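Researcher: Here's the sequence for the chain we discussed earlier.
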Amino acid sequence: MNGSPFSLLENVPTIVLAAGHGGNDPGATNGPHKERDQAIPIVDRMAELLRSWEVDVVVTPHAHDTHQTIPHINDRYGFGDAWVIEVHRDSASGLSTDDASRRCGCYYGDSQGSRLIGEFVRESMKGHGAHSNTWARRHTESRHGSLGWIQQTRPLAHLLELGFMQGLNSTAHLMFLAEIGAKALFETFTGREANDVAGTENLLLASELREPSSSLFESAARNGDLDSGSHKQLKEVLNAASTLESAIRVMLRQQKREPEFREHLHGTVEEGDGLCECATYAEPDAISESFAHRAASTRAELADQIINHPNISLARRHPSGVVDDAFAYNNIVDTAAGNRAIRSNYGNAPGGSVYLDERLLRGLLSLANDYSYHISEIAGASHSVGSRHYVGVAADITYINGSHVDASHKDQRAVRNRARAIGAQKVLGPGVRGHDRHIHIAWTRP
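Model: Thanks. This is the structure I predict for it:
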C-alpha cells in the first residue's frame, strides 16, 4: 500500500512514465524545438526525482511512439498494477510568454475516481509553480476528440501537458517543468508532501536564465540593434524569466519558511493534512510572543466576526466523543479573546496550543458570503501525524446549507472550488480516502 488518498491508487506499486511522441513522431514544433525531443529529458528527470523519493518508476522505451507504447504497457501491466502517465508539451498561439511557459494540464479518464485524481494533480502542480491557468480536463475535451492513451491502456492512465512550446524552451525551464510534474505525481501517489530536493537548483537555473537575457537586452537596446518587434519579444522573454525566478522564490519561502519564522522553529515539519497524510511531525516551538502579537487584534476581530456570522456554525463536540477544550467553538472563542487555540491531546494530536492563522479566518469569512456551513474541527481532535490542523491553518466542514457533506451533495464541489479561489492550497473532500463525509480546507504553513 503506497499511502495514496485515492482508492484507485492506494494498492498500485508502480508509476510508468512515457514521453509523448517517441520514435519518428516529432509531435508539435516551434521553430527548431520538437515536442518529442523535449518530452524525453522531462520524463528522464521526473523519473530521477521520483526514484530519489523512493517511488518505483518504470520509463517506457523512448524509441517507441504512442502506438507502440500502449501495447508495450498492456503486455506488462493490468489494472491495479501501475499508474501510467504520458508526458507532453502543449502548443497554442496567442498566450503571453509567462502563461505559455508555466501553464500545465492533466487529462483524466471517464470515471469519477480518475477525475478526482486529475483535479488533485492540477492543484498540486499549481502549488509547485505552475501557472494559475493550469487545468484538468476529461480526455474527450482534447482537440483530438478522445485520447487513445487513456482509453486503450489497461492500467489507470493520465496524460500531462507541461507548458507550451511557444513559451520558454531552455533546458533550465524544462527541468523546472519536470520538477512540477514529479512533485504532483509524488503527492498524488503517496499522499505525502513532496520534499524540496530540486527547488534551490532550479532557482539558480532561473537566475542564470534571467541574467544573460537582461544583459543581452540592455546591450542590444543601448546599441540600437533591435527593431520594435524584436524589442518587444526579447522584453517579454526577460519578464517571463524574472517571473519564473520569482515563482520559485515564493515556492521556496513557503516550503522552507521565512527567516523570522525559522529562528523560532525547532526541527522541521513535513506537510500533512487529514487522514490522507502520513508525513512525520516535529512540533515547532512557540513562535515568539512579540511576533505573534503583532496581528493579535486583527486575528481576534476576525474570530469575533466568525462567532457572530449567521452563516457559520461551530461544533461543540468531537466526532470521537472525547471531551476537552479544543472543540471548534472553543478554538474561535479563545482566538476572539486574543489567546491561542487549544489542541487536543489524544491519538495523534500533540496537545498544547497554537495561534490560528489569519488567512484561515479570512477564508472562512469569505466562504460564508456564498454558503452557510458547519465547522467540525479546526485545531482540535486527532488527525494524521503532521496535519495542518495542528498549526492553525486548516478546518473541516461537515454541513453545507443544512445538508451533510457527501459525494451527492449538490454544492460540495462548488464549495471546494470556492475554497481554492480564496486561497486554500489544499482542499480535500468526497472521493479522497478519509474525506467522504467532510471537506478539508488548508492554507500553506506559516
